[in-house]
Write a structure and sequence with these properties.
The protein is mainly alpha-helical and 425 residues long. It is built from 18 helices and two strands.
């Protein structure tokens, strides 16, 4: 009977994974779609670069602040309930964003969106840790990140086309309705662990028989582990770079400096998503099979990002569109998909019984990076003035130099990381 139950677990976990993966598509869509409608929003809402930067980054402040509570909710209340409730909040926020006439209302809607989607990733990692073995976890996290790439892809050219057809406002309303449908699907299909259905778990840990760790003790275990901090700093810097360019300022940069259309800019930015889709399964293989280590893989990614940001900062207006396309692809692989390896390292640093707390604390840092970088670059752009309605080349050069400094900091942090492969808990 146990063998039959284990087969049921193996089959049913695929339904669970893909329900959550489709939710993750919407998480990335919400995260990155302002990049291709930023100029439309600036015109419609009568907002400048700094205000639009803050509006876009308003997603990241509640997202970052919710990561520790999400870890607590995941370990106590349960990931299924948490995801469903908060996706309903995201649905309301997206609809409000599409209907509001004022920048203040748009910012509030964007805050609700960030709050609503903030729980999905950490809760999904918690569910994957219960339904999949350690070896399977890295691969399935890679597939999850690839689905995030699908969300990024839909946030580029499809969002540009849809907003040109029905307007950016109605586009956000429709996305809000789709988010509500995904919430209903997750509630219907997902279960926190195989034991909820009376089935055995393929995971190797014994978290359910070990004493529950109090939140305060779990936080202390994570924050007092020296190996946690280089990983956290690396996530802050690396993801701040990714979200500042791919999530907001990449679109205006292409339109202002190179004079491309919104649709063409969306097409070039879609290569970020291609990089995520292709890179997410491959970086796990690179770490497990080729370099045979988490640390060398993260160092390699950091070196590539230093090179990418150097091109943007020191050859701002001299790059061909083909090179910018390669830059976007590289950001997708080495600034986003690479998170698969970072979270695998985090899982191997700490025992499974505090995995929700660990993932929640760590996931605070990349989104804090996004919350800081987007408005910071907007302020730098504004400080250099405008040429008509466009920001100047000097402004983009200064903004991208900030990204270059962040890339250098990520590289230094990667040198101090601890190798974790094969050392779970």
């Amino acid at each position: 009977m146990r063998a039959d139950d284990l087969r049921k677990t193996m089959r049913y976990r695929q339904f669970i994974f893909w329900s959550l993966a489709f939710g993750y598509v919407l998480v990335f869509f919400h995260r990155l779609c302002p990049a291709v409608v930023a100029t439309d929003m600036m015109t419609d809402l009568h907002a400048g670069g700094a205000l639009i930067g803050f509006l876009s980054s308003a997603y990241f402040y509640p997202y970052a602040l919710m990561q520790l509570p999400t870890g607590l909710l995941s370990d106590s209340w349960g990931p299924r309930k948490t995801i469903t409730l908060f996706l309903c909040v995201a649905s309301i926020g997206s609809i409000l964003l599409g209907l509001t006439p004022s920048p203040a209302g748009a910012i509030f809607g964007r805050v609700l969106v960030g709050l609503g989607v903030s729980t999905l990733f950490v809760c999904t990692l918690k569910i994957l840790a219960e339904w999949f073995s350690v070896r399977e976890f890295v691969f399935m996290t890679g597939i999850l990140m690839a689905m995030g790439g699908v969300g990024s892809l839909s946030a580029a050219t499809p969002m540009a086309v849809m907003s040109s057809w029905i307007g950016w406002r109605l586009s956000f309303v429709l996305v809000g309705l789709a988010t509500a449908l995904i919430a209903a699907l997750i509630w219907r299909v997902v279960r926190d662990r195989p034991a909820d259905l009376g089935w055995p778990s393929p995971a190797e840990h014994t978290a359910e028989t070990e004493p529950r760790v109090r939140l305060r003790d779990g936080i202390r275990q994570v924050l007092t582990r020296p190996a946690f901090w280089p990983l956290a700093i690396w996530f802050f810097c690396k993801y701040g770079i990714f979200i500042a360019f791919a999530g907001l300022w990449g679109g205006p940069y292409l339109m202002h400096v190179y004079g491309v259309t919104k649709a063409r800019a969306g097409g070039i930015l879609s290569l970020v998503a291609v990089g995520m889709i292709v890179g997410s399964p491959l970086v796990g293989h690179l770490s497990n099979r080729v370099l045979k280590g988490r640390k060398p893989t993260l160092i390699l990614a950091s070196v590539v990002i230093v090179g990418i940001t150097a091109l943007l900062a020191f050859a701002t207006e001299e790059l061909s569109l083909a090179v910018i396309g390669l830059i976007c692809f590289g950001l997708g692989v080495f600034a986003s998909a690479i998170a698969v390896v970072g979270f695998a390292s985090a899982r191997e640093l700490f025992p499974a019984r505090i995995s929700g707390t660990c993932f929640g604390l760590l996931n605070l840092f990349p989104f804090a990076g996004g919350a800081v970088m987007q408005p910071l670059l907007g302020a730098v752009l504004e400080s250099h003035g405008r040429v008509g309605q466009a920001f100047s080349v000097a402004g983009y050069r200064g903004a991208f130099f900030v990204l270059f400094l962040s890339a250098l900091a990520a590289f230094v942090a990667s040198l101090f990381m601890q190798e974790t492969i094969g050392r779970q808990g």
